[in-house]
Design goal:
35% of the residues lie in helices and 19% in strands. The chain is an alpha/beta fold. The longest helix has 15 residues, at 17-31.
């Protein structure tokens, strides 16, 4: 569904509904006094269109408007400048960087980070510019020193300085200094369009994920700046057994019928992998950063048009590349970086041109994609089988990103070739306890649809290890990524009391308390802000819960006396009526039996 540019934009541009929502959220953040904010949108959903419309809308409110757009590669500078000129033809737009020099009369300067953020004296163009709005493309880089110099030089941290808006496709919390901590770059996320919603809304193609499990032993690879050390990683990945296994996995999945982008560790690795494909009769070429721009563009043109079937690369295609015909992504570059992982997968998610924009409803867009020449994107992840099925840890423990978690599925779920849409539909039909159990144990997609498997998961469900390690006194269950639930029983006229602790994209934690009365009427819906540190958040949450919910310790405490001993006769009888097999009842504890009864009765609508 589309709509006109909100806020009376000067140029005629048709925006999709979520793009209008993004602009509205940014304007609302500005009206609330927020000075530095983020807009998170998946690759392929028109981030540059929103960015340019953002400039147009703000320019219409300010007769002396000027803006600075910051990006780190010449391709990104040229793409942004072109889109801004198309959407805002009334504004003078210049590029500064990559051999271009902006005029001091430009109203919008699209500047390269290397040209504007290097140490030393402030570049002359910045001394002449007093921007009302500073925009950062690919904002997951914004914590780097070069970006920080630009923000300081343009007054983004000053109380009366310009508004800073970052755009990024990274749909997960960024680690370290990027957004978290007391001195964060951005104050909040004004708008986030979740990747899974973009898929459900029919703006992106469905995804089919596969794993190629190999003995890589990545635990021995040193970490540098939060990711694998490149030289050590190349020694592990750029070997004949690994490259051949990756090719065979690709071929077995049907890769010869898929236009494929391969992400590699280094240029040498990319060239070696391309040779493996060529030696097996596949038309494959390599692109890299220091390659001549014309030669690189020609190679990508051939790939897009079909005379090349596979293109290998080292990071150069992670950003600023639009090749909708790509229908497979082969990940031969393990990473600890969510931003890099999301960018790599995102290269294959665009539908073919002309497939979706003529349809106003999500159902018709999804149907059009399914009937197109590119109904889905196949993502093949080459993983270390020694860690592929480890239980997930704390939200900030530096674990490797996964395709599942990009879409809100647990990393422990083996989708067995099911698409993301199929897996989400099945997973979300499960009650929250079964979902929580899947997050704690390796599970096959085919197994979660059987009742006996669901009962086993309920029996094996245990409290979150990170809550125990924090010193929390209550029993907390992990029911989603950065989501923890404590059952709080009843008291003070309230029943169905619940406490949910949720972490957001920028590392903030909040506590949501809810309750009803015996008639089902909502009595309480409260939200409390918690410390950014997860352990401290658990402790603070429990202080708030104890203050707000009468007698809660009797229900929620790990040491509560009612949790002791084996299940009672009435509990076992209830579980039998609910269909739990006899073999699962033997030795069942009272606490677990109570949890299972509550969950199963809710699931059955009793």
């Amino acid at each position: 569904m589309t709509g006109g540019l909100p806020f009376g934009g000067s140029s005629a541009v048709n925006l999709r509904s979520y793009q209008c929502e993004a602009l509205g959220a940014i304007r609302a953040a500005k009206d609330r006094g927020v000075r530095r904010t983020l807009c998170v949108m998946p690759t392929g959903t028109g981030k540059n269109t929103v960015l340019a419309s953002n400039i147009g809308a703000f320019a219409d409110d300010d007769p002396i408007f000027t803006s600075l757009v910051v990006a780190h590669r010449i391709e990104l500078l040229e793409q942004s400048a072109s889109t801004i000129e198309r959407i805002c033809p009334h504004l003078k737009v210049d590029i500064h960087g990559g051999g271009h020099k902006a005029s001091k009369h430009a109203q919008v300067i699209v500047g390269g980070v290397q040209s504007l953020g290097m140490p030393g004296a402030t570049p002359e163009i910045l001394t002449q510019l007093s921007p009302s709005l500073v925009i950062v493309d690919e904002a997951h880089h914004a914590a780097a020193d070069t970006y920080q110099r630009i923000f300081q030089r343009t007054g983004c941290y000053d109380q009366l300085g310009p508004m800073l808006v970052g755009y990024t496709a990274t749909d997960h919390r960024l680690d370290g200094q990027s957004l978290s901590g007391d001195q964060c770059v951005f104050e909040e996320v004004a708008y986030r369009y979740p990747l899974r919603k973009a898929l459900a809304d029919g703006w992106l193609v469905d995804v089919q994920g596969y794993k190629v499990d190999l003995d890589l032993d990545l635990d021995k690879v040193k970490k540098t700046a939060g990711d694998y050390n490149e030289s050590q990683l190349e020694r592990v990945m750029n070997t004949e057994p690994v490259n051949e296994a990756a090719f065979k996995g690709w071929e077995e999945i049907g890769g010869r019928n898929l236009k494929t982008i391969v992400f590699c560790v280094t240029v040498d690795h990319a060239q070696t992998v391309a040779e493996v494909f060529r030696s097996n009769g596949v038309r494959a070429e390599t692109v890299w950063g220091d390659m001549g721009r014309e030669a690189r563009a020609e190679t990508l043109r051939k790939f897009a048009e079909g005379s090349i079937d596979v293109v290998t690369n080292c990071q150069i295609l992670t950003e600023g590349t639009d090749i909708p015909t790509a229908s497979c992504v082969l990940m031969l570059r393990p990473t600890k970086s969510w931003s890099m992982y999301v960018q790599m997968v995102g290269r294959g998610l665009r539908p073919l041109p002309g497939v979706v924009d003529k349809h106003s409803e999500a159902l018709f867009r999804c149907s059009a994609i399914a009937q197109s020449a590119k109904p889905k994107c196949v993502v093949i992840d080459v993983v270390d089988n020694s860690v592929a099925h480890r239980l997930t840890g704390k939200p900030d423990d530096g674990k490797s990103p996964s395709l599942n978690e990009m879409f809100g599925l647990p990393s422990t779920l083996d989708t067995e070739g099911a698409t993301v849409a199929q897996a989400l539909e099945t997973f979300e039909d499960l009650d929250d306890a079964t979902q929580a159990s899947i997050r704690q144990r390796p599970t096959k997609f085919s197994g979660i649809k059987t009742k006996i498997q669901q009962f086993k998961m309920l029996v094996e469900l245990d409290e979150a290890a990170e809550a125990k390690e924090s010193g929390a006194a209550f029993v907390w269950l992990k029911t989603g990524e950065a989501t923890y639930v404590a059952s709080c029983g009843w008291g003070g006229g309230e029943i169905n009391r619940s406490a949910v602790m949720v972490g957001d994209f920028v590392g903030n934690w909040s506590l949501e308390l809810k309750s009803t009365n015996s008639n089902g009427q909502v009595l309480r819906e409260q939200t409390f802000h918690l410390p950014r540190n997860l352990a401290a958040a658990f402790i603070q949450a429990e202080h708030i819960i104890a203050k707000e919910f009468t007698g809660v310790a009797h229900f929620a405490s790990r040491a509560a006396t009612w949790r002791r001993g084996v299940a009672t006769g009435p509990q076992l009888a209830t579980l039998r009526r609910l269909g739990v097999p006899e073999e699962l009842l033997e030795g069942l504890g009272r606490s677990k039996a109570s949890e299972m009864i509550t969950r199963l009765q809710a699931q059955e609508g009793r």
